Amino acid sequence: MEELVVIGASGLGMEVLWVARAMNRERKxxxxxxxxxxxxxxxxxxFDGSPVLGGFDWLEKNMSPQLRCVCGIGNPVVRKxxxxxxxxxxxxxxxxxxPSVQMSEFVELGKGVVICANSVLTTQIQLHDHVFIxxxxxxxxxxxxxxxxxxxxxxxxxxxxLLKEGAYLGxxxxxxxxxxxxxxxxxxxxxxxxxDLPPHSIAMGAPARVTRKKEDxxx
Length: 219
Hints:
There is one protein chain. The chain has about 220 residues and is an alpha/beta fold. The protein folds into two domains: about 1-95, 3-Layer(aba) Sandwich (Rossmann fold), CATH 3.40.50.20; about 95-205, UDP N-Acetylglucosamine Acyltransferase, domain 1 (3 Solenoid). It has three helices and 25 strands.
């Protein structure tokens, strides 16, 4: 049986843990060990019934063929850094899908993907490594979500949409068919995207308009 550690003892990390526990109720998949977090103030504390085992060095010291990790971090830039750090030491990633998720057999899931409860994914969809889909999202046919892209709760993505690496859709965002969201672009909550959005931008509104360029991004 695989052993599971969630990286990040945060609110989102606890939601990720909840997905893993829901999977275990359907069929025992993981032995859940707990969290790791570099914030020393959290070490030894209990979050949602699971301990914070230590910092990232705990993973290095406890490597085994059974050990799997998953990122419980919402910020795509930070998630990328954590995932690359884990890959450098040879850690393997779990993919978590809540049992209530509806999706066809024609959905491709990369490493470290998390899909939360009540989401619906139709057909010919590709989710690349470390994509995060939060509660009650819909993803239409032939959509591609590249690495580290993120849907906050209640997003609705129509068919043939491309979310480039690190794109982030805020809560309740809707994207009409056939559009591209540029890499590392953030779309504000409640926005309606009706045209392509450029990379490294912040957009919001209905229709969504670019308000400024982003200052943060991957190194």
